[in-house]
Structures are given as C-alpha cells and as structure tokens.
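discrete fold record:
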Amino acid sequence: MIIKIIIVLLLLFILFNLFRALFIMVSGKTEGRPMSHFLGCRVLFSVVVLIFVIAALKLGFITANSSPINATAHIQI
C-alpha cells in the first residue's frame, strides 16, 4: 500500500511542476527560475516513477492486471 501512495505523490508532484511551468509561460515572468527548470523536473520525476513502477513489479511489491489477450475463451455448448 505504501508503494501506491508513493507513486500517487510522485504523480501529483509531476502535475504540480507542469502547472508551475504553465503559470510561468502564461504570465511571462522572467525573474526567478525559468519554465524549462520545471519542465525538466517533470521529465526527471516521470522517469523516476517509471523506474520505480518497473522495479516494484519485478520485485513483487505490486502486481499488474492480467492481459485480456491471455483470457480463456468460454465456449457455449
């Protein structure tokens, strides 16, 4: 359960950085950190979430949903 909470918090932080970059782009402020800083943080944390999810899947902390392709077909007699 703690793994899922960490993933959700990281995804919320990604959205936060995305909207901070949007605010800087729309307002046109030039002082402070540039928009590319927040977009770079968003990309970095997206990679961290992806690696974190793959590692959690491989280590067995979380389980993936089964694929519908491998589902057995029910034949009506």
Remarks:
- The two ends are 43 Å apart (CA to CA).
- The mean pLDDT is 86.
